[in-house]
């Protein structure tokens, strides 16, 4: 059983439908789990990954497409999957595989309604913004990408719990309770999901603390990158309405050393990267 980490406030009754078990967490396809397992080995090579990825034509085409995208402009076109994987690197290939697998699972309107598509778009946008920030502050760019991609996965788990409750009982979970759970508890559910998927421990704390990076104990800087990426993704309206707020007014800018010059550069680069990613990956 997967425990609920954040109990409701003391003055609120527990939500009966918000009980987690293994069926509530959407599983990735076997091929994605295999790639995650292989990449967890620091000695893994693209040569050993290529036969696994090549078994899925959709994944292989997405990897090849990203390797030839404008994000890697200046290279000669990759004509084979192996060439594209060498260009991207093993961790980036893992990220592509997880992104495509994640997106494919989250489009069912019966479970996620209209929010599913928007949450996937927001996740992809946040992942690419996190990569930009990571380049600036010198943390692992591919791990930052994955944190950005997964930061709201808990929202999808909560929506699935509400769907499962309605299917089993014939009574929908109260809409206000669902929204409250999505708003207040998705970060904790996100951490549980990453544990179930056996993703690296380095990803779990940043995702769990992406709304309050000061709560992170061992990965504070990485959590701050995820927090800032989420803020900027909302500023740009990636999968959501733009809130227009400047990141420079947030204390995280000082903590990470993000100044007006960098932000102007991000404003120029981020929308193009987002458009490329949605076309290639989603």
Describe the structure.
The protein is mainly α and 282 residues long. It folds into two domains: 24-94, no CATH class; 106-281, Orthogonal Bundle (Hypothetical protein af1432), CATH 1.10.3210. Helices cover 65% and strands 0% of the residues. It starts with 29 loop residues before the first helix and ends with a helix.
Notable characteristics:
282 residues, mainly alpha, Hypothetical protein af1432, 2 domains, 0% strand
| Unreliable runs | 1-13
Dominant shape:
globular
The domain count comes to 2
> Whole-Å distance between the termini?
31 Å
Mean pLDDT: 85
In short:
This protein is mostly helical and 282 residues long.
Question: What are the SSEs and their pairings?
Answer:
Blueprint: H1 30-39, H2 46-53, H3 57-67, H4 81-88, H5 90-105, H6 109-112, H7 115-137, H8 141-150, H9 153-169, H10 175-196, H11 201-208, H12 220-236, H13 251-256, H14 260-281
